[in-house]
Specification:
- The complex is a heterodimer of chains A (287) and B (276).
- Chain A is mainly alpha-helical and 287 residues long.
- Chain A has one domain: MetI-like (MetI-like fold).
- Chain A has helices at 4-36, 54-61, 65-95, 101-109, 116-127, 134-141, 149-152, 154-179, 183-191, 196-207, 209-223, 228-233, 243-253, 257-285; strands at residues 38-41, 46-50.
- Chain A contains 14 helices and 2 strands.
- Chain A starts with a helix and ends with a helix.
- With 276 residues, chain B is mostly helical.
- Chain B folds into 2 domains: 7-60, no CATH class; 66-232, Orthogonal Bundle (MetI-like fold).
- Helices cover 71% and strands 0% of the residues of chain B.
- Chain B has 13 helices and no strands.
- Chain B has helices spanning 7-34, 39-42, 57-65, 68-99, 105-115, 124-133, 140-164, 168-176, 181-210, 214-217, 226-231, 241-261, 263-270.
- Chain B starts with 6 loop residues before the first helix and ends in a 6-residue tail after the last helix.
- Classes of the chains: A mainly alpha (287), B mainly alpha (276).
- The interface between A and B is large, with 114 and 99 residues.
């Protein structure tokens, strides 16, 4: 149906978005690449010439590098696992007949609207504080010694905070998918005597695969760059330094732009590997 | 796939679902409750749930201590303008992708989404320099541009999935009647696309409102939105639970209320058209 004229018009309409995003991608990227090959310390003499690959080797050989990659992966995978498992369960539950479904949905969706700085502060102080936090009151009530969550169980604590923020998103998408499930198919399986688990595994789960793909894609994009949750709670201490946070510290706290930029290039490469991998799945799943 | 069940099942469902819903909502509820307590009651052991002397003192102190109105206004301007401008750029792009698709359309879409995966910290310093160079540091205009750009891929994607659901026959009919491209866009497509556009606007507004990397790193005083307002309470002298709660409540209330009122549209928007 497309004529030649409408094709060129279409190109014209696409142009602003494409050009802007191309600029947004390329300009900072090229600058980062440039800095990553320089010795650049803004507070200690500024730009001091070429560094070759020094920044790159220094960044990878620093003892903080591999732990930070590991922390990043643990947080992303941990949050994905928790939100998907509980999201599926919660979606199945919310799909059942009950009273006040709308209100429950409002309660469940609420954490999604809370800005990350607020949720990090609230969890850190009012729940996880070892002296006055609600968790410490609860453990004292049961006669146990309160845990200082963010230093003794820092990574699980952060995963928990972030999961709380993203569970609504996963639940809502999965709920929409569950609701579109063909009930006749399920009833037929029920009559044939298929047990619950089998029905779940062979009918419900395959039906949810598209929704799960979307959840994984969108969450990974946002989880790779979580910042406020770490900035506000531990400041990267106690083994919670993700790759992004490590770079942030190199750039802003140590004011070593060259080193930070080299780290940025690594982070971009890591993100791209993940992106290619995810895009493949999504591309296939979205036709 | 809702089916009829026995009353007993329904009671159990209701009880379990409400318990979980309240559990998930509890941190927010607790924050709101604490914001009405005195500092002493806020850290009382054992914690007081409802039987405390309700007070507005914390709100008064927070208002006095920081210029809430300015932070709120900055949030509204930054999130609002970046959303509107983003949609203005994304609508034509998504329209052409949905109605005049070419072989490369899908590649372009996936490429756009992949730009969202570039880690922000990787380009923090260059952006910082550019902002200084262009005089945009700590300005609302600068943040509007940045937030517009980081959300643009998602906006294009969402609009694309909505537009694709509009049947092509209607367009052909309009064309047969001699509608020009402009008329087609204005009188045929736009009305049909309005629900989708509304969902997109909403979700984008919430994402921009809650964005906490660029807003924290590229502002100081003048352009600082609510994310920075609340971050200022993370310093040790701000560790008074009741005041922290009041500030938190003030930061999230506008978006929480907006989100609740529009949750139907939002749920549609959130699924990115991939789940029917």
């Amino acid at each position: 149906m497309a004529t030649k004229a409408s094709r060129s018009a279409a190109r014209l309409m696409m142009a602003p978005a494409v050009i802007l995003l191309l600029g947004w991608m390329l300009v900072p990227l090229i600058m980062t690449l440039w800095f990553s090959f320089r010795v650049y310390l803004p507070l200690r003499g500024g730009d001091q010439g070429w560094a070759g690959f020094d920044n790159y080797t220094r960044f990878v050989t620093s003892s903080a590098f591999w732990p930070s990659v590991q922390t990043t992966l643990v947080i992303v995978l941990g949050v994905l696992a928790i939100t998907l498992i509980f999201g599926v369960l919660l979606a199945m539950l919310l799909d059942q007949p009950m009273w006040g479904q709308g209100v429950v949905r409002i309660l469940v969706i609420a954490p999604f609207f809370v800005m990350p700085t607020v949720s990090a502060l609230v969890w850190k102080n009012m729940f996880m504080d070892p002296v006055n936090g609600l968790f410490s009151h609860v453990s004292r009530f049961f006669g146990a010694e309160p845990i200082s969550w963010l230093s003794d169980a820092s990574l699980p604590s952060i995963i928990m905070i972030v999961s709380w923020q993203w569970l609504p998103f996963a639940t809502l998408i999965l709920l929409t998918a569950v609701q579109s499930l063909d009930s006749e198919q399920l009833e037929a399986a029920e009559m044939d005597g298929a047990p619950h688990l089998k029905r779940f595994w062979f009918i419900i789960l395959p039906h949810l695969s598209r929704a799960i793909t979307i959840v994984i894609l969108i969450q990974t994009i946002f989880l790779l760059s979580i910042f406020a949750e770490i900035f506000v709670t531990t400041g990267g201490a106690f083994g919670t330094r993700t790759l992004s946070y490590l770079i942030f510290q190199r750039v802003l706290e140590s004011q070593n732009i060259g080193l930070g930029s080299a780290g940025g290039v690594y982070a971009i490469i890591l993100a791209n590997i993940l992106a290619v991998f995810l895009m493949r799945i999504v591309g296939k799943n979205l036709d | 796939m809702a089916r009829s069940v026995t009353p007993r099942r329904k009671i159990i469902n209701t009880a379990v679902a409400w318990a979980i819903g309240i559990l998930i909502f509890f941190p927010i509820l607790w924050t709101i409750l604490t914001s009405f307590k005195t500092e002493a009651q806020a850290i009382a052991a054992p914690p007081i749930f409802l039987g405390f002397d309700w007070t507005l003192e914390n709100y008064r102190i927070v208002m006095e201590r920081s210029d809430y109105g300015r932070f709120l206004w900055n949030s509204i301007i930054i999130a609002g303008l970046s959303t509107v401008i983003g949609c203005a750029i994304a609508i034509p792009a998504a329209w052409s992708m949905a109605f005049v698709p070419s072989k490369r359309t899908k590649d372009i879409l996936l490429w756009m989404l992949s730009t969202k995966m570039l880690p922000a910290v990787g380009v923090l310093y260059p952006m910082y320099l550019l902002f200084i160079e262009l005089g945009l540091l700590d300005s609302r205009a600068g943040l509007v541009v940045v937030l517009m750009l980081i959300n643009l891929p998602i906006v294009v994607w969402m609009l694309y999935t909505y537009f694709k659901e509009i049947p092509g026959e209607i367009l052909e009919a309009a064309r047969m009647d001699g509608a020009t491209l402009r008329q087609e866009l204005l009188y045929v497509l736009t009305p049909m696309a309005i629900p989708g556009i509304a969902s997109t606007l909403l979700l984008n507004f919430i994402l921009a409102w809650n964005e906490a990397f660029w807003t924290l790193n590229l502002t100081a005083v003048n352009a600082a939105p609510l994310t920075a307002f609340i971050a200022s309470y993370s310093s040790p002298e701000g560790l008074f639970f009741a005041k922290l709660s009041a500030a938190s409540t003030m930061a999230i209330a506008p978006i929480l209320i907006l989100g609740w009122f529009s949750q139907k549209q939002l749920v549609r928007g959130l699924t990115f058209g991939a789940v029917k």
